[in-house]
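Lab channel / #folding
Pinned by the channel admin:
"Please post every new chain as: sequence first, then the structure tokens as a reply. Keep commentary short and put observations after the output so the thread stays searchable."

First post following the new format, from NK:
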Amino acid sequence: MKYRIVAASTAAALTATALLSGCGSPESGSADGPSAENPVSLTYWAWAPGLDKVAGLWNEGEGKKAGIKVTVKKQASGDDLVTKIITAAKAHKAPDLVQAEYQALPTLVSNDVLADISEEAGDTKGRFAEGIWQQATLGSDALYALPQDSGPLMFYYRKDLFQKYGLTVPTTWDAFAETARALKKKAPDKALTTFSSNDAGLFAGLAQQAGAQWWTAGNEKWKVAVDDPATRRVADFWGGLVKEGAIDNQPMYTPAWNKALNTGTQIAWVSAVWAPGTLTTAAPDTRGKWAMAPLPQWTAGQNVTGSWGGSSTAVTNDSPHKKAAATFATWLNTDPEAVAALVRESGIYPAATAAQTGGALAKAPDYFAGQPGFYTEAAKIAAGTAPAAWGPNVNVAYTAFKDNFAAAAKRKGDFGTALTAMQDATVTDLKKQGFGVSE
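Reply from TO:
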């Protein structure tokens, strides 16, 4: 574990109500706010490539008119940035803005890092899918960030090999299981896909699709429901396929996994909208042979998907220019020119629904040139993104997933036991940190 969530003495005093209510301070400086004659400068910590170029568009355009200049300072991503921003906030030296992954928001809020910008940017709600907006609000009336990018889950498959083996693209998870078994009968040396334990984000997204809410807050306590019926349904489904040998059990992102994709030993992959970039590197010889379809559903005819990844733009409590920072964050993630630049320079899939088709995404990824409607289909899928419920110790849950599910997958054992261990580790850590936990 790269960082601790919050000191126990602080956590003991922190209630869920305080967590979800947020705090902030009024804009400092001139009573009239920044202007071309009275400019302010903001610092933005972020890791996405090319954000300095996007900020440059702001500085030369709307920012110049408004008197707001933004300087991007490149940072490491993930836990490293969370650790750094919490440390800076404790010293009251946090930047004005920070790029934050959705699952990191509760940790940052519980450490009093982020400001509630609902008054400044709350009217942008209609620009985003409900499930994505919920991740930025933590299920409350407060708004702790503006959604920037998202990673809706979908199904990728080798269309040539599906045709060769007479397989139909599965629209339900029951059909997915039957497709895996049918392939094994026709080509024992191949597998439909693999269950991987080295990235909990995929498993979390699949659980979200099934209706899981891993963390919820109420009555000044956290409730942890990692081992709930929805997630257990997902765990039992994948564990059963691994146990019977219908799918592979090797981890993703290894040379062996790359080879399996590139040679057609693995002919499908449940992944997110950003998968074309991974496939370009992992399976270069299969370019043009893949197609994308909606994620299989638990109930036929539905359109529900989960998320794998995604980040937001948040304003810190240390910023003396919160209104100005929220103005930039709103522009960055909703203005057509800004979002097009994010797609072009940073390679993101925008959270803003209006930017998910046409413009910068009018053309399919080169790897999927044979599917010209790639992003049109992706936008339809993204509209059904299920809400995710994150808590203040996601990193602990993810580590427990990796440890316990890796062992279960390797021995083709019971995934239910691994899920229970993941639940227990998450609850134990919350209590250790001093949070109230609802049993």
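NK: The domain at 8-151+309-368 is CATH 3.40.190.10 (D-Maltodextrin-Binding Protein; domain 2).
TO: also worth noting, The longest strand covers residues 146-158.
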